[in-house]
Specification:
With about 500 residues, the protein is mostly beta strands. The protein contains two helices and 40 strands. It is elongated and about 105 Å long. The two termini are about 45 Å apart.
Length: about 500
């Protein structure tokens, strides 16, 4: 019995093992200082793949080095000495940046960010170096960098430039990729820094008109185009340790976040197309996607919006982007082929510390699973939901307060209107009765909240469903009134 349990456990472990996952070294040293490093480690560590057992290694610029645990050779008695046992329990490094003083006895036991001062015989003042220790899946990554880090939250990369006073020109120092950390080099972090869009926007914009501070504008190379505005947010780095050797002056450690001034998010189940005022280029935004409004200024500009192929048509509307936008406001979209038809959607405005997020959504999605024509009525407005229409219907009450309680009425085929019922009771399931001349239609209504907590998903389905789980083929029919048999039969396999 024990053998069978062991065998089952072994087979389960083997089945869940991912052969594509590669084993990582316990420690990785990354050089992001912009100058070479000398790394000195203890006898309990050794460089991965190194044929020699030396403790002194050079790490070139933008390169990394993996360290693994070294194996101790036991003494003639077969035991480790007291010194060896102590050294095997602690992992320390010493780092010497090229041309600077040593950072000694760096403990690798805990993740965090630590600040050290180093000196150079060529400089009068000390400069600061930050050690960033990140731990994940048994691997600790020690990044040696300057106290200044840039994180790009745009969907396009940015070229980082520094101002050279001697030549009075801008010099490229690297590229900040989307959602990646860019480490400013040690010899650059005290310089004035500028940004310029790169990637698909390379060559379309000049460097920012001012150095990185709060808001920077990158002027377009074509005078007919709008400038691109970058919103910057400087956040103090979360330091867990500052090494003190009697010095009082330390360079502050900061992370500068680059954000677009405005971001558009599509929370509709359909693709939308948008175009900012003053631009000639339209952009498409798939359902559930987010796009940077690169040329937005949040100063009253108008953005044209098109809801594409909803009920087989395109629907057009406009959004005015300014500082006075309410948290929730409606947008009326008009059908391109019939101006009498319209659909209402809503915009949720979230003002964050560095940018504005605009989310286009519909308060209700209605799904028809009844295989019959449904109609919804609220506030003298009627919406028809065809039986063969498999996509959702976007529904919204026409009211000033988006969250005020309103009721809707339901009609099935040729039935009369039901009593009014609410669509706001999330998590509920109930029955709605629609009276007809000879029978009543009973419709099950299920209401669930969407994952983004702005839309209620309403599903209309038959209240009773017959499922044949027997081995026989059945025919069923409803008996109406005083009749002794059903007039219409339905085949159920």
């Amino acid at each position: 019995k024990r053998f069978r349990v062991f065998q089952a456990f072994s087979e389960g472990a083997a089945a869940s093992f991912d052969s594509s996952v590669k084993e990582k070294a316990p420690f990785t040293i990354r050089n992001a200082l912009g100058i070479p490093l000398i790394v000195l480690h203890g006898a309990n560590l050794r460089r991965v793949g190194s044929p020699t057992q030396g403790k002194l290694h050079e790490v070139a610029v933008e390169q990394s080095m993996d360290l693994q645990h070294a194996t101790f050779q036991p003494s003639s008695r077969g035991n480790l000495s007291t010194l060896q046992r102590q050294e095997s329990c602690s992992f320390n490094l010493s780092i010497v940046p090229s041309g600077y003083s040593e950072i000694a006895n760096i403990a690798l036991d805990k993740p965090g960010r630590r600040l050290y001062n180093i000196r150079s015989p060529m400089l009068q003042d000390a400069v600061s170096v930050l050690l960033q220790i990140d731990a994940a899946e048994g691997n600790k990554v020690i990044t040696v960098r300057s106290p200044l880090q840039i994180k790009n939250h745009f969907s396009v990369p940015f070229t980082i430039l520094r101002y050279c006073p001697s030549s009075r020109s801008l010099q490229e120092v690297g590229e900040a990729r989307p959602e990646k950390e860019f480490h400013v080099a040690l010899e650059t972090y005290r310089c004035q820094l500028f940004v310029r869009p790169a990637g698909r926007l390379d060559g379309q914009f000049l460097p920012s008109s001012t150095c990185v501070s709060w808001k920077e504008a990158c002027l377009a190379t074509d005078s007919g185009l709008l400038p691109l505005t970058v919103s910057t947010l400087a956040m103090p780095d979360a330091l867990c340790h500052i090494a003190s050797h009697g010095e009082e002056d330390w360079d502050p450690a900061y992370v500068i976040h680059l954000h677009p001034v405005a971001v558009l998010r599509n929370l509709l189940p359909y693709t939308i197309r948008y175009m900012l005022e003053g631009l000639a280029e339209c952009c498409e935004l798939q359902e559930g996607s987010t796009s940077d409004l690169l040329n937005a200024r949040v100063a009253g500009e108008v953005m044209a919006v098109v809801l594409m192929q909803y009920q087989g048509r395109d629907w057009h509307g406009h959004i005015r982007i300014d500082q006075e936008m309410q948290e929730f406001f409606p947008v009326c979209l008009t059908c391109d082929s019939d101006s009498r038809l319209s659909v209402d959607v809503s915009v949720h405005v979230v003002r964050l510390q560095s940018h504005t997020l605009l989310s286009v959504f519909s308060p209700y999605w209605i799904i028809n699973k009844t295989s019959r024509v449904l109609q919804y009525k609220a506030e003298d407005e009627t919406v028809k939901h065809p039986s063969d229409y498999r996509d959702v219907v976007l529904f919204s009450f026409r009211k000033k307060n988006l969250f005020s309680k309103s009721k809707i009425q339901l009609c099935v085929s040729t039935s009369s209107w039901s009593d009014g019922f609410s669509l706001d009771t999330v998590g509920s399931y109930g029955c709605v009765r629609c009276p007809a001349s000879s029978k009543d239609f009973l419709v099950g209504v299920s209401i669930q909240m969407s994952s983004f907590n702005l839309t209620r998903i309403v599903t209309m389905s038959p209240f009773y469903t017959l499922v044949n789980k027997s081995s026989y083929e059945l025919e069923v029919g409803e008996v109406h009134g005083d009749a002794s048999y059903a007039k219409r039969w339905h085949y159920v396999a």
